[in-house]
Amino acid sequence: MLGEFDFIRRFLSHFPKARVPVGPGDDCAVLAPSRGPLCVTTDCVVEDVHFTRASFSPADIGHKALAVNLSDVASMGATPRWFLCSLALPQGFPLAHLSGLARGMSALAREHHIDLVGGNFTSARELSVTITATGELTRPPLTRAGARPGDWLYVSGTLGDARLGLAHLRAGVTRGASVRRQRRPQPRVALGQLAARFASAALDVSDGLAQDLGHLCTASQVRATVELARLPMSAVVRRALGAEGALAGGEDYELLLAVPSRRGKAFEQACARGGHAVTRVGEVSRGSGWVILDEAGRVVRRPGGFDHFGSASGVD
Amino acid sequence: MLGEFDFIRRFLSHFPKARVPVGPGDDCAVLAPSRGPLCVTTDCVVEDVHFTRASFSPADIGHKALAVNLSDVASMGATPRWFLCSLALPQGFPLAHLSGLARGMSALAREHHIDLVGGNFTSARELSVTITATGELTRPPLTRAGARPGDWLYVSGTLGDARLGLAHLRAGVTRGASVRRQRRPQPRVALGQLAARFASAALDVSDGLAQDLGHLCTASQVRATVELARLPMSAVVRRALGAEGALAGGEDYELLLAVPSRRGKAFEQACARGGHAVTRVGEVSRGSGWVILDEAGRVVRRPGGFDHFGSASGVD
Predict the structure, then answer these.
(1) What ranges do the domains of chain B cover?
(2) With respect to CATH, is domain B4-136 assigned 3.40.50.150?
(3) Where does ATP bind (chains A, B) (predicted)?
(4) Which residue, B277, B80, B299, B10, is CA-closest to B161?
């Protein structure tokens, strides 16, 4: 029978040794001094809420738990540095699954050069993984509050794929690009760092663009106008969900960026050089709330209405 | 029906505004530069593992979740600075209980001047609270690895009370000092900071002194000898559990400290002036493992034997 310390050893064996004064195994980790201010976030994935063990491999779970945190670090324009991992494991959780979870997490950690410095194991009825991640800032952080009238709005990648992937998994379809977006979201870390040179505000699109636009407008005290025809969607999402599905989204982990219009072209060129797909979807103006316009410039959606596309019950 | 954002607002309303460049509400918090290196820890309390909702008030749960993390910060000799709180809440968790939990956490946070800078809410089948706490170091950290032959070993406060309190709660006894130690552990933050001026090593006694002595010896590659007659116990623990119960302990959240013998008297005097109860319980020597001696100097307990007092099945 394996005890807590065997589990810890097994888990840690999948990660490189952290380059810090005191790493895992003591009461606290001690971090090396950072050159710039640190940003820090915590996020949790829970069995049967954010994943099921039937549809996600242990490596998928480990990947996703870290990815959702790295996405928050990315949206500040920060460089990932250190993270801690608190694992709640059901009785009898197989050691092989623990290794799989660690491998999925470790592969993503190596890709983004973020070091595991500590953590915690506890038993629980359901599997959950809570990660706290830190990033280092070499420029002022990209907050939600920095958008200004006249800024252009950009979205990275494509929207709606993770939502479609979830629908596929629920229907028993376990392969394809959308399923992969649901299981293995890719945090836009390099884009976030690039955007820190251009953008006035950023956040990651985790709740669906419609809701996250609302967060941006509230925090920045501005109004956002998005053109429906510009929303970046994969062909399969366009066919399966349409613009409504892409807007409501959820778990896209793309970045929503506000960039001063005079910097827009330079930002687009830098993105093209770096291989980052970004799409200009709208603009920021004085006011509050947001609207979505169709190709004729008519309002097709306003805040407050998740009930049905076009039947806006807005509180705008 | 209240949404996630109402819960967040309600929870945050119980905490003072954090003095940081970016506080709760953005994708990450941004921390103010710290003067010294940061230490960081994460720990989790889970319903029916670390508490029951029948025996703990929401405020008890909030207190305990933060206390176990502050205890880790204390054991490094650090000054608490910032923390994040990730809450997993069952469906229908009452808003009044959320406020109670926040109040218990906030009261302890104010006492130790640690600011809530961020967090996360998720639904789950069982209630759990995962906290990540940071502390600032103005002296080298007190690790588990610093004990040296010749050091004296000290324990703060008294041992075994939390274990007795747990037994009381299970028996339906809901009042008394032991129950309070179980519900409301007091992290030894001020003592940890004082000890940073004297000690060579420290850890908090969370798994019981016997087990935590083992951690110290392994990390420091030394041998520890503890005198049974010196173990600090309250009268009620001595009567109810005896030395065996106090040794096996669990959730004491006292500090185990190794202090160079030449600094021992000065340390004791500083503790007396500061109102910190510490008891010299033994000493460190060359070798490995630990032993407990009775009043006649006979070995009564060695590592590996949790089976029965005196029948050591050690792997020493």
Answers:
(1) 4-136, 152-301
(2) no
(3) 119-120, 144, 206
(4) B277
Kind and range of the H or E run holding A191:
helix A189-195
Which residue does chain B place closest to A45, by CA atoms?
Answer: B122
Amino acid B246 reads A
- Cβ pair B143:A26 closer than 8 A: yes
Look at A84 and B32 and tell me if their CB atoms are within 8 Å. Answer: no
Confidence of residue A311 (pLDDT cuts 50, 70, 90): very low
| Contact state of B122 with A50 under an 8 Å Cβ cutoff | yes
Find out whether B66 and B42 touch, Cβ atoms under 8 Å.
no
Q: pLDDT class for B249, splitting at 50, 70, 90?
A: confident
What is the C-alpha to C-alpha distance for residues B180 and A194, in angstroms, rounded to an integer?
Answer: 52
Whether the per-residue pLDDT at B315 is higher than 50: the answer is: no
For the domain with range A4-12+34-136, which CATH number is right: 3.40.50.11240, 3.50.50.60, 3.40.47.10, 3.30.1330.10? 3.30.1330.10
**DSSP tag of A26:** B
Give which of B1, B4, B42, B144 to mutate to test A binding, by max A Cβ within 10 Å. Answer: B42
State ipTM: 0.92
A152-301 CATH: 3.90.650.10
> Which residues in chain A touch residue B46, judged by CB atoms under 8 angstroms apart?
88, 122-124
Q: Give yes or no for residue B310 having a pLDDT over 60.
A: no
Q: Return the residue in A28, A50, A53, A215 with the most chain B beta carbons within 10 A, the one to mutate for interface testing.
A: A28
Per CATH, A4-12+34-136 and A152-301 having the same topology is answered no
Neighbours of B130 (CB within 10 A): 30
A2 or A132, greater pLDDT: A132
